[in-house]
Amino acid sequence: MNEITASVKAGVLTLSMQRPEKKNALNLPMYTQLTKALLDAEQDSQINVVVLQGSATCFTSGNDLQDFLAAGPLDEEHPVVQFLYTVAAFPKPLIAAVAGLAIGIGTTVLLHCDLVYATADCRFQMPFTLLGLCPEAASSLLLPQIAGYQRAAQYLLLAEPFTAQQAAQFGLVNEIVSNEQLLAYAATKAEQLAALPALAVQRSKALLKAPQLQQVQQTIKNELIDFGQLLSSDTCRQRLQAFFSR
Ligand code: COA
Which CATH superfamily, name and number, covers 4-181? Predict the structure, then answer.
């Protein structure tokens, strides 16, 4: 089964994570498919907006922890690394429709999305330190900017979960939508955006992102050095194994 499905309507590419038996945990083939779909969408003049979603009840439980256990070097060729750089520099609007779980990269990817719609039952969490890891996806730069330093420390050091209401209050989430409405609502917003003059929208996004794109890329790079070292530590491996022997 294809765990990333793609559909196109009215200039909107919708990418859906579909691995329900693992709560949509992202494995390496899923990252590769997402990256390819984004790079193709970048080149495709028929696509103006991309929506990233899970189901109406679950966004994603984050990186597949089994893949973390088996991880090779996090070099430029690694599927996760390629996805991070691609999503950070994606030139067309990216909209996230988030329900239920948004763990790890399920939260940090939202820092690269332009619009985020979430359900009230969302649980956001970046449990990196709990696993003996550190922030990724430039969250160490972007989260303090959006949420303030102390709140970022609460979520990235203590690794406390937070709700959609909290995320909306500090600006990570645009609007809270019911589970029944979520996917249709995100699609409506995406079609609204896709109907605007595409060049004007893309130039506007580029202007919004330009002031710190290089810093974001450099932060991703710096984080990956620490992340890769921590990933191979005994502490991290024990914590990952503990998850699977619950
Ligand atoms: N990687 C790999 N497998 C995962 C996973 C992940 N990130 N998240 C969930 N799964 C698997 C579980 O192992 C389980 O598989 P099994 O049925 O073969 O045993 C299945 O998905 C269902 O998960 P389960 O834990 O039973 O669901 P839950 O509703 O009780 O808990 C979570 C959901 C997300 C709270 C819990 O699964 C969890 O903490 N996952 C890890 C999240 C994480 O640390 N992500 C990486 C952050 S860097």
Answer: 2-enoyl-CoA Hydratase; Chain A, domain 1 (3.90.226.10)
